[in-house]
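Running this now, will post back.
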Amino acid sequence: MEIYTELAAQFDRMQLYASSLPQVLVHWVQLLISRYELTNRLRVAASRNQLRHSVAQTFEQHQRDAAALRQKCAGLVPRH
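Update: finished.
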């Protein structure tokens, strides 16, 4: 629960940044959706006391979404 609380706080901080960057909005929303799906699958798996293949697939999608957002943000930083 402690890890979840810390991650939620980090997502709240990222929300402030994302709301000021309309260029990343699509990627931000996709990351939020994949976070919800991952959290939900983990909750269901934990209640059944098992991790399933679908949790791994959902986690991989969440990682791809995070990488896409990271790449989009990196593209906004001017290069010197």
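The mean pLDDT is 85. More later if anyone needs it.
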